[in-house]
Amino acid sequence: MDNRVTVGIHQPNFMPWLGYFYKIAKSDTFIFLDDVQFTKTGSSYTNRVAINISNQSYFITIPIKRSSGTQNINETEFLNEKWKKKVIGSIQANYAKSPYFKEHKDYIFELINYRAENLADYNIHFITSISQALELNTTFAKSSQFNLSSSSTKRLVELIHLVKGDIYLSGAGGDNYQEEKIYQKNNITLTYNNMPNFNYTQPKSENFIKGLSIIDALFNVGIENLKHFFNKKGKKGKI
C-alpha cells in the first residue's frame, strides 16, 4: 500500500480554471497560501479570472482596497459589493444559452454573493464548495494557520512537512523555477500538475478557449461529466 502523501500548495484564486481543481483532485492535502503578499500594483489571479464574453477570453476583476504599505491576501478587503451584481449580469448575458446554465446558475450565483471579511476567505469558500460538489476527496488547510516566518522554497518545504507530506505537486511549468535539490535534501519528491487536454463544446466558439474559469465548464459540460473527468484521474477525454 502506498502511504505517501501528495501536497498541493497554491494561492486562493478567484473562481479558478479547471486545472486548479485538477491539482486539488491529485492532492491528498491542499494548502491555500493565503498569508502571502497581494500584488502591489495591478491585478492577480486572486482577484481576476477569464470567462467567455462574446466568444473571447475576457477578464472580470474584483475591485479591492489597497493600503499604503504591503498587504497579504487574507488582509485584502473588497472595495465594495457592487461588483457581484455586475459579474452575475455578465455571466447571465454570456452563458444563458449554455446547456447546463439553468441547472447550475442558482448555485454559482449563491457562491458569488457569499459575504466574507477578506479576499482569501471569499475565494477559499468558492473553491472548497466546488470541490465538495465535484466529490474531491482532499483535505484542505491554510498556510496562515501555521504562522510561519520563512519564505520561498523553504516555506513550502516546511508546510509540506507540517502536513506530513512527502510528495509536492507543483504547478505545470514549475520546472522553470523550482529548486529541486532543496526538495531532494528534505526527502520530498517533486512532481508537476500536467492536466491532460479536456476540450468541450463552447456554444458559438469556433475554437476552444482555454484557461477560463471552471464555471465555463460547469455551464457547458455539467457537474456529472466533470465528476467523471476527475474520477478518471486525468485520462484524456472530450465531451
Descriptive report:
With 239 residues, the chain is of the alpha/beta class. It has one domain. The chain has helices at residues 18-25, 82-95, 101-112, 119-133, 152-162, 180-185, 214-221, 223-231; strands at 6-10, 29-32, 48-53, 56-61, 139-142, 167-171, 189-193. The strands form two sheets. It has a five-stranded parallel β-sheet. Strands 3-4 form a two-stranded antiparallel sheet. Strand 3 and strand 4 form a beta hairpin. Helix 3 (101-112) packs antiparallel against helix 7 (214-221) and helix 7 crosses helix 8. The longest helix is centred in the middle third of the chain and has 15 residues, at 119-133. The model is unreliable at 234-239 (pLDDT under 50).
Give the structure's gist in a few sentences.
By secondary structure, the protein is of the alpha/beta class.
Topology:
Elements: E1 6-10, H1 18-25, E2 29-32, E3 48-53, E4 56-61, H2 82-95, H3 101-112, H4 119-133, E5 139-142, H5 152-162, E6 167-171, H6 180-185, E7 189-193, H7 214-221, H8 223-231
Parallel strand pairs: 1-2, 1-6, 2-5, 6-7
Antiparallel strand pairs: 3-4
